[in-house]
Design a protein that fits this description.
Number of domains: 1
Largest sheet: none
Distance between the termini: 39 Å
Number of strands: 0
Radius of gyration: 17 Å
Strand content: under 5%
Structural class: mainly alpha
Helix content: over 70%
Shape: globular
Oligomer: single chain
């Protein structure tokens, strides 16, 4: 499901770029960054965070983790916070995008490592699992940081800071 979501978001960003008056590398990178932040790291992850907060045991089982404990509750609120910050990319641009892009890149890269280590502990890794984990986790980190670097996130013109 998340692979399809990612493909739809990248298609949406490409169409948006194609219809834009400004077609620069910076604009394409910013659109990609905003689409992935809002559409992958934002809105869907707000839903996941709410699920974690409302039905913590069910959510933990659904996500493949042991339920319970204060740590899960702390994580749920932190997850909600970073997801909401990603949603705010709809409105805020420039240097604001650095925060959610870096936070989610670290999260997705770390999740990739954790999942690979967990899967490797259960036996040899199969190429389908490697591809799925990378497409739904590691690739997001690469897209976010790549778009951030390519777009050169800066303060808006006239803000006095660059």
């Amino acid at each position: 499901m998340f692979v399809i979501l990612l493909l739809l978001l990248l298609l949406g960003a490409a169409i948006h770029y194609r219809l834009s008056a400004e077609r620069t590398r910076r604009r394409g990178a910013e659109l990609t960054l905003v689409y992935v932040l809002v559409g992958y790291c934002g809105v869907p992850m707000v839903a996941v965070a709410i699920w974690l907060l409302v039905s913590p045991d069910q959510a933990a089982h659904g996500l493949g983790f042991a339920p319970g404990g204060a740590f899960q509750q702390f994580f749920s609120f932190a997850y909600l916070g970073v997801a909401l910050i990603a949603v705010m990319a709809i409105r805020f641009r420039g240097a604001f995008l650095i925060g959610p892009a870096v936070a989610w890149s670290v999260y997705w890269a770390g999740a990739t490592i954790v999942h690979f280590l967990e899967a490797a502990g259960q036996g040899p890794l199969h190429w389908k699992l490697i591809l799925l984990l990378f497409a739904t986790h590691g690739l997001i980190a690469v897209l976010l940081m790549g778009a951030l670097v390519a777009g050169g996130a800066r303060m808006p013109a006239g803000s006095g800071k660059q």
